[in-house]
Structure formats: C-alpha cells, structure tokens
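chain below, 380 aa
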Amino acid sequence: MANSNTNALGILFPNAYDELVPELTSERLMASIPFASRYRMIDFTLSSMVNCGIDNITVLVRENYFSLLDHLGSGREWDLSRKNGGLNIFPPYAQKNMGVYGGKVGMIASVLGFLKSQKEKYVVLADTDIAGNFDFKAILDAHIASEADITVVYTKEELPENLVKTDDLTRVMYYTLDLDGSQVKKININSQEKGIQNFSTNIYVFDREALIDIIKTAFNNGSVYLERDILIPQLDKLKVNGYEYTDYVSHISSLKSYFDENMKLLKDENLDALFDRNPIYTKIRDDNPTRYMNGSSAKNVMVADGCVIEGEIENCILFRGVRVGKGAKVKNSILMQDTVIESGVEAEYIVTDKKVTISEGKELKGTETFPIFVAKRQTV
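prediction:
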C-alpha cells in the first residue's frame, strides 16, 4: 500500500444505481455486489484510493447496508483501521435533523460538519457501480495542473444498451459530456445518442472548502442532485474539466451487464488490465485451497478458495466455498459464495446468489442473452 499520504479525502456513494440491478440489490447495495470471484464492487474504488495514498475515506450509506458493514468492518484489510482518518461510515440519521438521503446534495450536506473539521485540500467523490484500477494520483495531478474548479472523470464508450432503451428515463440519471478541449461545455442527462460518447463515471474532484460552500448553498435552496441542480446550471460560472480514463473499466448497469463483465475476465488480457497495476484488497476469509477431486474437469474458469470440484466446470466464475458434485456439468455460469451444485446437475448460463442449492439431477439452462438468476438461499 502507499506509504505517503495524498492531500485528498474520498467520499463513496455505495447505493448509487441500486435500482439498475434489482435482482442483486434486494438484500444488499451496489457496493457489496460480488464481482470477479472474490471481490465486492466497492473493493476496486476503495483499493484504488488507498493505493494512491488517500487514507481518509467516508462511505455515505442510505439503506440496505448490513452486508456492506459486514464486508468493510473496521477497514483493516485496506489499512484504514486508524486513529486519525481511516474509514468512516455514515448511515442516515447520523446527525440531528437529517432523514434518509435523497440525492448526493443531501448526503454530503449531512456530513458538512465532518468535512469542515478535515485538513485535506481536495475531495474525491465516487460511485461504486464501476470496477477499475484507478490512478487517483494522476487524476488529482491533472486537476491541480488545470486549475479547474471541478474535474470529472469520463470514459469514451458506447452507452450501456439497457440505459438507452429504458422506457422510464427518470428512473435513473446518467450523464454524458460535451467537451471543448478538456473543458466541459455541456452535461447531458440520459442521452439517447448512438455511438461513442464521453460517458461520465461520476468520479469528481473538488476543492474541499469550495465543495462545502457549494453544498451548503445548494442544500438551503432545496437542491437534490449534484449534476442536475449544481453543475449543469453553473457550467458558465465554474471551470469544469474532463479527465479521460483510458484503462480497463467495468460498468454494472443490469444483470446482463453483470454477467458479461464477469465473463470478460476469463480472457487473460482483460484480467491483466484490471488487476496488473496495483493490488485490489478485499475481506479475508480463511479457507482451504480449492480441491479438484478425481474425475473432475475445469476449463477456462476463475475459482476462489474453499471450493470443492467433483464434476465439470467450463467458462465459469466461482466464488468462495462453492461445491460442484459428481457428474454435474456447469458451463458459462456465475456461482456466488457457498452455492451447492448437487450430483448430476446440468446447468448453463445461470447466475446463483449466495447459499443457493441446485438439487440433484436438475437441468437449468438460460441463454447468453438471458441468463437465469437464482436468488439468495433458494433451493431449485
């Protein structure tokens, strides 16, 4: 981990875009969705901040956060269990006269007292619906060099299909940027444009004292959303710069995208692009190495520790503690923690949540475009 501190603190919004993946967020939030065999979505942004020397990180939870608290604990795995700074988790009602948060304005307003007491010059805001190995030091350096009021990180890519095709454009808000050089001239809400767009990652860099002033004024005026109510109306007054993120990133915006982004990691070039720069930390679960029993077969798989494989697995992502019984054949599937596939099962294109059991002899097959999802603790 980084030895020197960066002059910035981090604020994470773990509930952002929960509604896009209702299958996976009925008992958890976006930040604690399992990803890449042994991680949670928050691990990537949290680890990236720590690797770049940001050691004062606040998590503003809104609801459904028990699994996240269990995962993060004191922050020890990320070297954030500290007397000063470290990991701070603020639930709703953390301060007097505050209710359940609406948008980011209210969420940040709820911790203004905390922000005022901090010493760091800059604040990095980030959602947790993306997995990347971010170089926040480079982002901060670019922000400082540009002398911008705000820096927003974006990627150049086509918009996720499920966002563009949704019938309810008010269900969630996503943003694309119109740029003049590096300066943001327009922020578009829920663009329907085709082709490559400047797609905002919702990662922002602010001067801490400026953020406090902006949020205080906006909250008193009844504003709710950071982008819609603050940035867009003030683009002519604020210098907002764009920073293009060109390295590997996974956006989770639907169950199908969750399946696809996991499966991409079965290709070495994608796995290396996500994990090669700096380590990604996660909660430790002391377990035995995975055991492959006589007669088992494994082809092109990502398997965490604690699994027992007696059958056949191919093109699969297996999380910790999964068991695949004798004669079972599982292909093109994601099996979350402690899933049990009993003997003789044939399964293809399925996603099981934690502690699912597929009973002996069952046949369960989805398709590449429509994987079958089995909810947490269910027996099929």
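The mean pLDDT is 93. The first strand starts at residue 8 and ends at 13.
thats it, cya
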